Amino acid sequence: MARKKKGLPVNGWVLLDKPLGITSTQAVGRVRRLFNARKAGHGGTLDPLASGVLPIALGEATKTVAYVMQGVKRYRFSVKWGEATSTDDAEGEVIETSPQRPDEAEIEAVLGRFHGDIEQVPPLFSAIRVEGRRAYDMARAKESFELQSRRVEILALDLVDRHDAERATFEVTCGKGAYMRSLARDLGQALGTCAHVIALRRLSVGPFDENRAISLESLEALGHSPAALEHLLPVEASLDGIPAMALSEAEANRLRCGQAVSLLARINRDRIEGLKSGEIVYTTAGGKLIALARYEAGEIVPVRVLNL
Q: What's the pTM value of the predicted model, to 2 decimals?
């Protein structure tokens, strides 16, 4: 006898403004309980010391998480000069100090080094796996290990404010996998000093930005009410920037069954115009999201079928 699934088949995105002091996993759990949803996930981890945009996927929206995580992100972070910590943020212990404090002109002069594709070594306290183990577990156990540098893309890095000799705030637009704690650390080194993050906020991720986010406190105040459902965005809200393709019901049924749909007939030329081989599209029928699919050799091949 099949086990009865717990929760309701709630599908969509909740754009949460994560507060300080809790993990992303804890935030997901609280939102999941609020909506009594069967499944939940999120579109990119935020540390307890970070606040801001945390897109939470419920139900079938979890199948689109990868497309959010691949999106461009924006952050605002503040650094303290003259101190490096074990975690590269204010949670860690101070492991190095420097009397050097950069002025505004010195800061501006090095920002160009951190634009474009750059090499970056992740913080030791990170979720990266080393021979099957999480780096942060090894770091907490004070084991000796190194993380390899990797290429990340920094689209923009701007000095927002030099509050005083000790602190400065930056805004960053970046691609997937960039660590703000590493960026702060490396900025300090480039300026002949050391540094760590003392405040971090994510302003946007993929198509989601802070202007549309709701605080956890406000969401929980709504409780299990119809008003809470007003903050549930459709699954396709995460697919901004991915081409959409309308299907007939017959074509949609083929995708639902895991079968490809041929678009080689002349009548379909307008539907595939501009598509490149391997490109992902999201398909709809009757206004309902059917599947994420890949265009290949004149066919649309299902990648993730959504049960909505």
A: 0.90
